Amino acid sequence: MVSKVLKCALALLKINPLHEPTIEALAVLYHDNRQLIPAEKALKQFVALNPQHGSYYGRLAGVLLHRGNTADAIAAAERGLELNPHLWKLHEFLAEVYAGNGDYESAKRHKNLLSRMRAASPVNPAGNQR
Q: From 3, 10, 27, 44, which residue has the greatest number of CB atoms within 10 Å?
């Protein structure tokens, strides 16, 4: 099934290389199947076309981190939070990455922000009612 979707998406991009829904679908498909190099390329293309999508910067950050590019992963996650400071997963991501890099001050800042968001919300990060 994935290969059929991939073939169709790639064929569509030959006709229209900037077709945003197809680029988005490829980014998600590659990301979810841990195909990191094409995922990075598709995610970078998607955020270039849609720079207001904070959550996609989060996906890009995860790919960049897994590919060993910690500095760019942090930059992508921080950009995502600039666009949407309420993205719980990006605060969690940054707290872990900063702590892993020894930047405990930044890690603590994100943990504190996350704690405040959790305390203020009737819904936990997984979307379940408390």
A: 27
Q: Are 48 and 56 in contact (CB under 8 A)?
A: no
Q: What is the pLDDT along the chain (130 residues), one digit of tens a residue?
A: 568 878 888 888 889 888 888 888 888 888 888 899 999 999 999 899 888 888 899 999 999 999 999 999 999 999 999 999 989 999 999 999 999 999 999 999 999 999 998 888 766 555 444 3
Q: Tokens at residue 13, please?
A: 């991009």
What would the DSSP string read from start to end of 68-89?
T-HHHHHHHHHHHHHH-TT-HH
Give the fold, CATH level 3, of 1-75: 1.25.40
Please count the other Cβ atoms lying within 10 Å of the Cβ belonging to residue 50. Answer: 12
Reading the block at residue 41, the tokens are 């390329």
Contacting residues for 39 by C-beta, under 8 A, at least 6 apart: 27, 30, 31, 59, 63
Domain borders along the chain are 1-75, 85-130
Count of Cβ atoms closer than 10 Å to residue 12 Cβ:
16
